[in-house]
Amino acid sequence: MEPLLQAEHITICYNGKPVVKDVSFNVDAGEILGVVGESGSGKSTIIKAVMGLLGGGGMVTEGDIWYKGRNVVDMPSEELRKILGPEIGMVFQDCKAALCPIRTVGAQIYESISEHERVTKKQVYERAGEVMQKIGLTDPQRIMDSYPFELSGGMNQRVGICAAMMMKPALLLADEPTSALDVTVQAQVIREMKLMRETYGTAMILVTHNIGVVKAMADRVLVLQNGEMRDYGPTDCVLNHPENAYTKKLMDSVLHLRRNA
Ligand SMILES: Nc1ncnc2c1ncn2[C@@H]1O[C@H](COP(=O)(O)OP(=O)(O)OP(=O)(O)O)[C@@H](O)[C@H]1O
């Protein structure tokens, strides 16, 4: 079966300087790919390239990124806008910051969905209720009528995941979705994202510094260092039996941190 997403030998530059170099990976339907590596190794840049949102100065200079057989790299921005949301969803580190502070959560979710489909507010609220209840958010009406500042950081994050899932994307891009949360809420969000994958069969690219999160969620892992691919393979092989020197060092530093914690 053809992968859902296929990055083939991509090199990404900012202002002519390569920050991701000759990286290749696949994401199969329903698969979770974890992307790890030290700060500045190019993890977020890869996510941005998949969204076609590298911004001024950023460019995929070599290679292709195929999504369902279409090349995202040279896709016109209008086409891209059509698939971002319904096909490729996004969750970021701080969902609250991504929301407008002076409009209710429901109004903003309605607006983002109505950009892609003809829906009524009632339909959006019903759909939100369905998804929220799946992950145990018991009072969807109250949440939808709230302003972002009225919800906790953890709740905003859970709402952000629900909002992305309401369009039932085939692929969810998650950039540090749990790193701003305390550990108990982190565990809850991890459970909920896994539940979303089980319920809707959503594939995910999960960028994180947290090796524990990758172990808990990812089927495969891509390890980056200075924009170069150091390791790529099934989570257990890469993280529990690392052969690459950099991955070994990364895992040793995690163990060291745990011992000294
Ligand atoms: N808009 C930009 N313009 C110029 N350089 C950039 C831009 N965005 C990122 N970079 C550079 O690209 C490299 C990769 O950055 P990126 O944010 O992808 O790393 P990362 O692995 O996600 O880091 P972190 O874990 O700290 O978020 C870094 O050297 C960064 O300084």
- The structure class reads alpha/beta
Task: Supply the number of helical segments.
Answer: 11
Number of DSSP-assigned strands: 10
Distance between the termini: 44 Å
Give the names of the bound compounds. adenosine-5'-triphosphate
Multimer state: single chain
Taking all Cα atoms into account, the compactness measure Rg is 18 Å
Spatial strand sequence of the major β-sheet: 6-7-8-3-9-10
CATH superfamily: P-loop containing nucleotide triphosphate hydrolases
The largest sheet, given as strand count, sense and whether it forms a barrel, is:
6 strands, mixed
CATH class: Alpha Beta
Low-confidence sequence ranges: none
Shape: globular
Average of the residue pLDDT scores? 91
Beta-strand content bin = 25-35%
Total domains: 1
CATH topology: Rossmann fold
H/E order of the elements? EEEHEEHEHHHHHEHEHEEHH
User: What is the name of the CATH architecture?
Assistant: 3-Layer(aba) Sandwich
User: Helical proportion?
Assistant: 40-55%
InterPro entries: AAA+_ATPase, ABC_Ni/Peptide_Import, ABC_transporter-like_ATP-bd, P-loop_NTPase
Protein name: ABC transporter, ATP-binding protein
Family: Belongs to the ABC transporter superfamily.
Subcellular location: Cell membrane
Walkthrough of the structure:
The protein has one domain (5-260): Rossmann fold (3-Layer(aba) Sandwich). Strands 6-7-8-3-9-10 form a six-stranded mixed sheet, sandwiched between helices. The protein has a four-stranded antiparallel sheet with strand order 2-1-4-5, with helices on one face. It has 261 residues and is an alpha/beta fold. It starts with a strand and ends with a helix. The mean pLDDT is 91. The protein contains eleven helices and ten strands. It has helices at 43-51, 77-83, 95-98, 105-114, 121-134, 140-144, 153-165, 183-200, 211-217, 235-240, 245-260, and strands at 5-14, 17-27, 32-37, 58-67, 70-71, 88-91, 171-175, 203-207, 220-225, 228-234. Bound molecules: adenosine-5'-triphosphate.
